[in-house]
Hints:
By secondary structure, the chain is mainly alpha-helical. The protein has a domain at 36-261. Helix content is 74%, strand content 1%. The chain has 15 helices and two strands. It has helices at 14-30, 37-60, 70-88, 93-115, 120-139, 142-145, 149-158, 176-203, 205-215, 217-222, 227-253, 263-276, 283-298, 305-319, 324-344, and strands at 162-163, 255-256. It has a two-stranded antiparallel sheet with strand order 1-2.
Amino acid sequence: MWRPPPDPQWPVTPRTFLAALAAGTLGLCLLPRALSPYHLIVLSYALVLAIACLGLNLLLGHTGLLSFGHAAFFGMGAYTGGFIYSFAELRSLELYLLSGIGAAAAVAALVGLLCVQSTRIHFTILTLAFAQVIHSLFIAGTVFRLAGGQGRGLFLLGGGGLYIPRFTIAGVPVEPEDFQAALYYVIVAAFVLSALLMWWIVNTPFGKTLHAIRDNEVRAEFIGVRIRRYRWVAFLISGVFAGLAGGLFGQLDRQVTPEQLHWVFSAKLVLATVLGGHRHLLGPAVGAVVFAEFQEFALRFTQYHGLVLGALLIAVVLTFPGGLCGYAIAATGKVLARTRRQRHV
């Protein structure tokens, strides 16, 4: 059975976490003044990825379950509002996001109910299989055909993709030249609220129970923990985070394609989460930002971008096996311990 590595000797206290989040939020709010519009889009994409990774890590880092199916919930978060816009003229960003979160939650509830019946590699394979089933329904146009002739025409027009217009923010239309900056602050707010909510979840009795299941499933079951119920709730919450990220991505990219539903996108979320450190609350967010920057750098090498990205990721993972946050926390702990020893000498 997969078991996570031990926690670092210097744990992150709530005060440390909140201080780091506050400093990070301030920095994110000031960055638009220093970044070009293009780099602001890249940072926005990284923050959207970070929200999805925070949700995925509720399963991977806190429950001990590896999912390769979160692309399905990410894609549902983007597609649902796109369908509503196509057939009902949706104009509100808030309603677009809520519709995507609701659809992602519904799909996660159903898929999770079946997947949590298994553990270990069987759980991972089931999540991958369900995600590929959902992907095939979109790429083959089956979902579009449910809307009749108009849906079939929409599928043929976009090849399975949907166009997403600029929605109103808080009921106010935003001019095209100001929209990217306004959406960036919406994404920052969503990321900060997601991080705070995840911090609260993992520090509640529910979160501590997930840790108990992760560390010793047999012992947790012996003391009366309903393991499958807790895993299902964690799966549902994780899907909600992915749905929110998908909705934000749809508005950021202004389109959604079946690529966001493919298991390869799920693998990117897993890789970014592990890269930052899945045993640390903000590790997935750090990993998402680094992964986005690596991806952006690799795209400069048009023909060999996959080779460059893979080499960078391999180098980082081998150098920091506990993740970037794990290394930073361990290094800081050593420095603090050395400082205390010198004071007592």
